[in-house]
Amino acid sequence: MGDDAKRRAFAAAAHASVQGRTWSALRAELVAHYQAVTAEPAMGHSPLVALSLMAAKPGL
Prior knowledge:
By secondary structure, this protein is an all-alpha fold. It has helices spanning 4-17, 23-38, 47-56. The protein has a domain at 21-60.
């Protein structure tokens, strides 16, 4: 039952999509998010950082 060619294509695409997702890369991404949220407010930075700061530290 099923389409072996389609299954192989999906498997190859899934495998290719996670090649850069090493534990080192995931850790670095998590640390960067943490640093952005815990940094002191800096109004000159990107709106996403400002929104993250406001969400993480109500009352800013």
